Amino acid sequence: DLVRKRWLENDFFGTTFSMNYKTAETDLMIGGAANRYLGNHFAEVVWTPYFKPINNRYYDNIGNKEDVSLYTKASHDITGKLNIFADLQYRMVFYQANSVKFSDVNDTFRFFNPKAGLNYQFNNKNSFYGYFGIANKEPRRDDYENGSINPERLFDYELGWKYNTSNVKVSANAFYMKYKNQLVMTGALNDVGSPIFTNSGDSYRLGLELESTINLGSKFVLQPNVTVSQNENQDFNFQRDGILQNLGNTAIAYSPNIVLGNRFTFLPIKNFQ
To answer: Judging by beta carbons within 10 Å of its beta carbon (0-12, 13-18, 19+), is residue 253 exposed, middle or buried?
Structure first.
């Protein structure tokens, strides 16, 4: 029997910068960021039933990350009704970590994250938009501890419609999110109760989101929303009892196929709701 304390001592610092050029038709921004995160992970034994520890620190590890990014964003109004935009980001991550569970890590990740889209204002009530983007995310220190060392890559496709009047606002967004090595929760927890993630190989999220605001006279407002989606790992390989098994297509944990919500607002008098 023993009592132990596990500590984190973290420092984060950095800078961001941007330059903006704007006209009636064009909005251009160039910018970036550079920051550093220093994470010290250590633990001490503070009590045992037999003796009081003296040299009681039994591990002293790090999880340090430098993050540097540059981006260019631009949007341009072509006809008054059609607007296009693009966002190009280059990001570098320098990661150093060690642990009692894995050997020293000294990794460098280089990510190119492009995004582009368009918005068409059909009339004063209806507008339509389309979007495509690629995003990348590096594994965390906890992921290294659990053997998930590959960065996650997302290809995101979206199409949407917005309807806007004085009493009713509706938005619909259809999405297809294709992942490579998505870091998904397995359902298991580690020894301090945090969820364990694993690289799932190929996976996707396909669905439709609906949101609305409905004014029922001057006193009542309804804001219902619903998301219907299919979220699956494809040909998911998992090590169980020391044997690597192909589980086929499995549902992504903590990703329900239907999410429903509604907000009801009552405004009895002015300035009170």
So the answer is: middle
Cα gap 256→236, rounded to integer Å: 18
CA distance 134 to 113: 5
Distance CA 236, CA 184 (A): 11
Task: Please give the helix or strand (H or E) that residue 143 lies within, else none.
Answer: helix 141-145
Digit-coded pLDDT (tens) for 184-213: 988 888 888 889 998 988 999 999 999 999
Question: How far, rounded to the nearest angstrom, does the alpha carbon of residue 37 sit from its chain's CA centroid?
Answer: 19
Q: Taking Cα atoms as reference points, which of 5, 10, 99, 9 lies closest to residue 43? A: 5
The pLDDT tens digits for 118-143 are 999 999 999 999 999 999 999 998 89
β strands within 122-201, DSSP E? 126-137, 152-164, 168-180, 183-189, 195-199
pTM: 0.87
Tell me how far CA of residue 212 lies from CA of 130, 165, 206, 239, in angstroms: 19, 11, 21, 44
3-class SS of residue 141: helix
